[in-house]
Amino acid sequence: MAECIIMGSGGGGVSSDEVTARAADVVAGKSYLGADTDDDVGVGTLVEREGEQTTTGVTISDGLAHVGMPPGAYRKNGRYGTPEVKAPVDVVARAAGLDGAKMLQGYSPLGVPGQIPVFNTMGPSGTDPRGSLTTEYGIDFNAHTLWMHAPAHNAYYMRQDGHPHICMDSEALGDATAQQALQGCTFTSRNGLKIPGAIYRWPLSGDIGGQKVMDAYESTAFIGDYGARGVGVFMRMPGGCQLDPSCMWAWAPMPGAIASNIRAGANIGGRVGTMVDYAASCIPFDGAHFDGVHLSGWADGDCDTSRRFRIGPTGRYQSNRTAYVRNANFTPYGAGEPALLVWLLTPSVALQPFRRALVTVSYSTDTTIMGNGNGVNLWAGFSRVNGVQRSRTLDPIREASATYLRTQSGRAVLEIPLDGVAEQGFLVVAVHGSNFRSKGGGGVFDAHLERIELIA
Fold it and tell me: Residue 257, Cβ neighbours under 10 Å: how many?
């Protein structure tokens, strides 16, 4: 058996008390001389471990992984040429806090599989721009946001160009155009984002009695017939414009629609007329007949004004009148009576609205006018009719005449002044031939009442 000699620092021997080793410091089975041997040989108790040992635990702290190992002597090599402590992967993973729910699919660090799906927003092929199309979207009115659910819900979204995105079908945004939205407003549709509206807001022009009013387009209004719906007022409205919701009325100028231009008692659009309708009070004469045209009727019977005019049954209104010359004095009613062609028109005319009347008469004759101071005399006037039936007299109100026209044919316009006249009157037109001589004992004299104009 080998011997061990321990020398002191002074060259002398030393006792076991001067050795610090203890049994726990010496590999089990090996002898030693130490402080706990009382100068006798002791046997070590330090466990010698195999080259591969299982860890007693793993913790992560201070930026380091702390791997626990059983106490003992490690002099034997493991499979890789050095002593080793083996820590199970799941223990290390737990110690490191690895969570598959927080790691991408396709990765398994320390054996922990990632659970987060990887979603290519360009589709599986990487070339589909609608690859991330969502079908769940809406508006959060409280948060003032448009929200879209990600199609893969919790996932890692990627794209080769580094710009992953989520998209929705643009058709879901609607189909409005600028021409369907008001000016001053913006909207989003399949046609774009925040598009400015183009519909013109028709302005208000004011109010009447607190009710808002707008002007009709181009101030255009007219009265017309709307087929089966009858007569009404048409007002041009601004097509393609927005009308203010507070607007209640449209207005267009109609300066002639005043009470004095509307027959008294008539209500046109809420305006009651004040103009006296003289036609409604026209005075027909005895046995009057009317043919539906103003100033075209006639009356049966005689009217006489001291023989100035005489109108008998032959005096019915016709535009053309013909008399036959029986003798030199042209007296178709008998010798000694003035020769007249007379029109007495009915019904009466309200003269107040008119300033003048123009009466056009033409005549022709194949007779000879005898001597100076003779010829064709024309007279027209508005007259009152007095008396009783078949015994009427004419009382002229205003008149005009043309005398001693010596041409055998001609035309004359008689102007009757009517200013200041405020009553009803009957129009009388007379043609008088003076001292005609017939040819061959029987001449013809024609007269034609061509036109009557009442001018306001």
Answer: 15
Q: In terms of Cα–Cα distance, which of 378, 428, 440 is closest to 407?
A: 378
Q: Which class for 198: exposed (0-12), middle (13-18), buried (19 or more C-beta within 10 A)?
A: middle
d(CA 67, CA 61): 11
Q: Are strands 84-86 and 118-120 parallel, antiparallel or unpaired?
A: unpaired
- What does the alpha-carbon distance between residue 300 and residue 316 come to, in Å, rounded to a whole number? 8
Distance, CA of 92 to CA of 39 (rounded, Å): 47
Q: What is the pLDDT of residues 75-129, one digit of tens each?
A: 888 888 889 888 888 888 888 889 999 999 999 998 899 999 999 999 988 899 8
Q: What is the pLDDT of residues 180-220, one digit of tens each?
A: 888 899 999 999 989 999 888 889 999 998 899 999 988 88
Cβ proximity of 433 and 445 under 8 Å: yes
User: pTM value?
Assistant: 0.39
Distance (Å, whole) CA 279 – CA 417: 20
Burial class (CB in 10 A: 0-12, 13-18, 19+), 323: buried
